[in-house]
Amino acid sequence: MDKKRKVDAGIEEEDHPRARKRNRASPIGLVKLYEFITEDQARAIEEMELDILLEIKCHCLNNKLINWFASLYDKNTQEFVIPGRGRIPLDEEYVYHTLGLPYGTNPVIYSVDREVEASLGALLFSADSSTPTTSRVYQILKDMTDSGDAFKQIFVMYIISTVLSPTSRNRVSNKCYPVMLLYVDSLIVSGLDLDLPQARFASNIWSKEDIDKVLLVDLRDDKVSYGKLELKS
Fold it and tell me: Are 82 and 88 in contact (CB under 8 A)?
């Protein structure tokens, strides 16, 4: 029998050696929050244009695919270069199509602002003596009934630290599930027996079962790399 272990957000996953590397990037903690989000909180999330994250179809990561796909990233061109197939750019349009998150013209600075971190910590987590872990923030959100600014700030901090841009730390950060969806949604799958729902964004289309079917066909004979299917033009 496969061993089970507790992971962030108090959820059990299979204790697979490769899975440990990336469960912090899994949306499973967010999906588990769905049943605890009140109607007022759902409206608050919609006001932030983040309600698309309340309809995620796949809460699991395929670490084998992610490891392979991430190794193909060219930082100079900001593209994933698929041998013999083409390129997938990592830009605002592709990320938007994958996740459906709002984006504007202001750049997001990927760094930690210690002053902001300290002020938010005192404001939002006054009961904690240090920056809370993601599992602690999960519990806070689970128990919250408020839907005001405090809820919005904690919710955004949680999804950034777990789904969108997780770090190797298990604490929330103001600093990749999206990568997996980006690749699968860039493939031509019209010849496969898939019953995909009609939705605008990849996060609301691809279930774990459908992703597994596609990757089974896309896996090359070496059983390590992918890329048998053609990319969309």
Answer: yes
